[in-house]
Amino acid sequence: MTTEFLELGGEKRPVRFGFEALYSYERKTGKKALEDFQALQSGGQVPISLMVDLVWSGLFAGYRKEGIPVDFDEYDVAEWLSEDQTAFARVMELFTASLVTTSEKKTKPRPE
Length: 112
Known about the structure:
mainly alpha
């Protein structure tokens, strides 16, 4: 799992998805992160709160991993997303990449 720095709100900000982001999302919303992600993939209308909470969780995990104090809230994230209409798509690319399991990655077979 890696941390990526994305331009949001005029600054490069760390975004990281993994169990820490999913955990913070579920604790924050009371919803199941993976179920909400499946809803995003269905192509229906996406609630703004889901978008903001998912991005906030990735940022929270990124800041935590980098040891940077969190200096933003959900309203800041909503503003950043409205300022840059491509930001959510970039964050979703990171989220999707984080869901790739080890078994799906190419590995060399173990010698016998």
